[in-house]
Amino acid sequence: MDLSKAPYCEQDPQQNSQLVRSLNDGTNKASRGFKVKKTTFKITGSPDGLSVDSWRFQDWDYKKPNLPTYARGLFTTKNRHNDHEIAVRGYDKFFNVGEVFDTKWENIRRKTRGPYELTLKENGCIIFISGLEDGTLLVCSKHSTGDRSDVEVSHASAGERWVDKQLATIGKTREEFARELRGRNVTAVAELCDDDFEEHILAYGPDKAGLYLHGINVNIPEFMTYPSGLVQKFADEWGFRKVGLQVFDDIDTVKNFLEEVAESGAHEGRDVEGFVIRCGLASDVGQTKYIDWFFKYKFEEPYLMYRQWRECTKALIAGKPPKFKKHTKITEDYLLYARQRLAKDPKLAKLYNQNHGIISLRDDFLAHKNLKGSDAANFENVFGNDTSSVSDNVVLVPIATIGCGKTTVGIALTQLFGWGIIQNDNIQGKGRPARMVEAVLSSLMEHPVVIADRNNSERREREQIIKDVLMQHKNARLVALNFAHGNIDEVRRVTRERVLKRGDNHQTIQAASDENKVIGIMENFIHRFQPCDPESSPDYGFDFVIDLDPAQGSRVNVEKVVIELRKKYPLLIPDMPSAEDMDMAVKHAIEDYKPSIKHQIPDRTSKRDQKRQEIQQSHDPKKKKSLEYMSISVPAKEVNVALESAFKGVGAATQRFYKQLQQTRRIQPLFHVTLMHKASAKQYPELWQRYTTLEAESQSVDNKVGECEVMLERVVFDDRIMAIVVRLLDQEDTWTCVNKVAHITVGTRDDSVKPKESNDLLTRWLDVGSGGNTGIDRMMVSQGEGVIGVLEEEALVKQSKYWEYWWDAIVCVMQR
Ligand code: GDP
Ligand code: MG
Fold it and tell me: Spans of biased composition, class Basic and acidic residues (predicted)?
């Protein structure tokens, strides 16, 4: 390869000023598309007193389309003509396989072309080197030059020392190097690997330390980079160390190679972190133009854990103590197993040392544990087993059936310690399990401990919450509150008694008929209950399990939870609450705690049964239940967020009714926009016909007959009722609302005010307006994008005081 044939492109001042302009826009706090942080550095030793601006994007913004550049690491400056110049240009941000659309294997296969250059992902910190107009050699880290006292600075100046060292060995000056880089209009990109300076995971002793040149980028906004052959050549010429390079022509060879290395975690006898793959990406549909493009393949769990096991096994064989910091519990278990196997079969050790049987030993262990490797790695907290310093990020996960006291114990704990609780029944819309986890994680930002109030009676539910939490929050610890079902008859008796006793207190309920339904649902849960087994998947993923006895009553259980948690995580509960405090907390939870009971829930035990019924009925049109009303259900989260932000920062008087609704739990848990009620069928016969037809023809299992975007416009309220005026963003006009003002009822003062009175409020509002002595207040809801609502046929929906239990049942069925 000939360096004189290297890619070249000169800078275009106009393009540069355009670039700087849009980068500057990005520094504006109100910037919508992306955000940039600009930092200016004066260059010490620059004869012209030059300074450079560093432009730093937020990592996640790189996933957005239409950025002015995707350079990660970008510095600009001004030259003598007062033109903007790119001083340093990093690589385009590149992603892991599977991390973004383009890096899914099928897209890589479809859109890229070889040669595929694989370089080892060196394990140090990145250093950029380039030449300024006045002959200064600029050496910087990703976002900083050597002139400030932060961490990156020390990287940059350590890099500078290495550059000096290597220039000295080839007898060149800084200025010569600067001129060379400037002449080529490039940035040299190197990895600083030096244990003396900073120890990374992989070892770089004195013989290996230095600057590893891995790329040379042309200083233009688009990404143009030297092929690796030229990079190596340049490295030789200028005294850099070189990174290992492997070139493959086709993508399947690349994939196989990477997966093989991943299996062993080692390459050429050396542990590696991963590979960067450089290739061409088709930039047009016809695949005639290709641009330089990188992706990476980083070894992640479970491979890192396997590597640890391999090293530990070798230590064991050598009679040395195995060292490990991560995956402590599972690694201990693995070693116990490995020790037994090694003792049983003396040949195994010898073979293992020759790298045979490594994989089968670990696979045998996983099979023995009934675990998949990825689960084993995910489940256990990677920060090891020392729980004495745990002071937050704890999720309490009940394993129970209805009436065991999950909510009571949970509420009592929130009362005692100010912890968070997320109730599954407050979550609605699509993808409930994932959104439950989302809510738990966001609550963890405000509370050290969050109770994930859900039955989790089946293993798959536990697996879901454990996996989803740990996937997104590696530091989290999950603790099971195991309401043991050993004595099933006793559990059945106690929970029924509690739940029905409570039901009887509600005069509106037809006790007998509802009772049977409730018992049916409860039985369903008991039937599906799968006991907790901390030794195997998925319960293995709990940090530990607190065994509770549902029959013992919530007071006893609360105390048990507190004592056990305190034992395990002393920092979490520094002071044991007094008996009286616990008495009070449980009393409050049982007596005062009232969930909002205005939920609307389908009057049935199982959606599947329902569907079956519907199918049967559809053969006999007379029997089919008629449509009651058509409405759009709107995700509660979005509505609540909109309300919160609308009321944030407004005067106390304006907030008063909203606060009242919140505190008295009168905010609807489910929100919908009513389009039309059966009652107006005479008035709008055609529309009603259309809706009933739509509903009748709908094949959907979950009652969904369509989707419609809903824009929340303003909140209107008096001292009795609150509604949000909405606009249906429905291009085709499929969904017509017959109410004068399409709206969502947020809540009413008490049961005497019916939600449909929103219509009266809004009519009055249209007539007399708001403010002054109208008694009506209104506010804009922050205008965001529309919220996607789901059209449901509500024929089978009715209200029930048992909504809580129904809801559990529905959620459960939906999850199947
Ligand atoms: P969950 O379905 O597991 O959330 O159970 P809850 O916490 O809602 O409890 C079911 C019912 O039993 C509620 O009405 C509670 O107020 C009541 N309850 C909970 N714990 C106790 C207890 O220790 N003693 C009595 N008598 N009632 C309880
Ligand atoms: Mg509950």
Answer: 595-620
Position 504 scores a pLDDT of 45
499 CB near ligand 1 (under 6 Å): yes
Indicate the helix (H) or strand (E) that contains 296: strand 290-298
> Quick one: which H or E segment has residue 671?
strand 671-677
- Counting Cβ atoms within 10 Å, is residue 340 exposed (0-12), middle (13-18) or buried (19+)? exposed
CA dist 101 and 335 (Å) reads 39
Residue type, 683: Q
Q: How far is the CA of 413 from the centre of ligand 1 (A)?
A: 14
Ligand 1 center from residue 754 Cα (angstroms): 29
Contact by Cβ (8 Å): 490, 407: no
Ligand 1 neighbourhood includes 498 CB (under 6 angstroms): yes
pLDDT score for 175: 95
Q: Name the residue of 408, 494, 509, 560 to mutate for ligand 1: max ligand atoms within 8 A of Cβ.
A: 408
CA–CA separation, 441 and 422 (whole Å): 10
- Calculate helix-pair angle for 803-815, 607-618, nearest 10 degrees: 80
C-alpha to C-alpha distances, 330 to 377, 475, 758, nearest whole angstrom: 8, 16, 58
Band of pLDDT at residue 814, cut at 50, 70 and 90: very low
Mean pLDDT of 376-380: 69
Q: Which ligand is nearest to the CA of 426?
A: 2
CA of 439 to the centre of ligand 1 (A): 24
594 CA → ligand 1 middle, Å: 11
Q: Across the chain, what does the average pLDDT equal?
A: 82
Establish how many alpha carbons lie within 13 A of residue 12's alpha carbon, considering only the half-sphere containing its beta carbon: 9
Across 39-53, 421-435, 618-632, 704-718, least confident range: 618-632
- pLDDT tens for 509-529 read 333 456 777 787 788 888 889
Can you tell me which atom of ligand 1 is nearest the CA of 401? 3
CA angle 519-607-641, nearest 5°?
A: 95
Flag whether pLDDT at 98 surpasses 90: no
Residues marked active site are found at: 121
How many C-beta atoms surround the C-beta of residue 798 within 10 A? 11
Residue 717 pairs with which residues in a beta bridge?
Answer: 722, 777
| Contacting residues for 538 by C-beta, under 8 A, at least 6 apart | 375, 379, 459, 460, 462, 463, 466, 467
* Cα–Cα distances in angstroms (integers) from residue 257 to residues 325, 344, 614, in the given order: 29, 34, 54
| Ligand 1 center–CA 553 separation, angstroms | 8
* 766 contacts 728 by C-beta, under 8 angstroms: no
- Statement: residue 503 has pLDDT above 90: no
Q: Residue 385 — pLDDT band, cuts 50, 70, 90?
A: low
Query: Which amino acid, 682?
Result: K
Report which ligand 1 atom has the smallest distance to the Cα of 410.
7
Ligand 1 atom having least distance to the Cα of 483: 3
Is residue 801 in contact with ligand 1, taking CB distance under 6 Å? no
Q: Is the CB of 642 under 6 A from ligand 1?
A: no
The ligand with the least distance to the CA atom of 398 is: 1
Instruction: Identify which of 519, 588, 590, 597 to mutate to test ligand 1's pocket (most ligand atoms within 8 A of the CB).
Output: 590
| Ligand 1 atom at shortest distance from the alpha carbon of 805 | 2
- Using a 6 Å cutoff on CB, does residue 402 contact ligand 1? yes
- Domains (ranges, CATH) in the chain? 9-298 (3.30.470.30), 303-383 (no CATH), 394-592 (3.40.50.300), 607-793 (3.90.1740.10)
Task: Please write down the HEC assignment for all residues of 96-116.
Answer: ECCCCHHHCHHHHHHHEEEEE
How many angstroms separate the Cα of 588 from the Cα of each of 58, 96, 742?
46, 50, 39
pLDDT (tens digit per residue) in 116-169 = 999 887 667 889 999 999 999 999 987 777 654 444 556 777 888 899 999 999
Task: Look at the pTM and tell me if it is higher than 0.90.
Answer: no
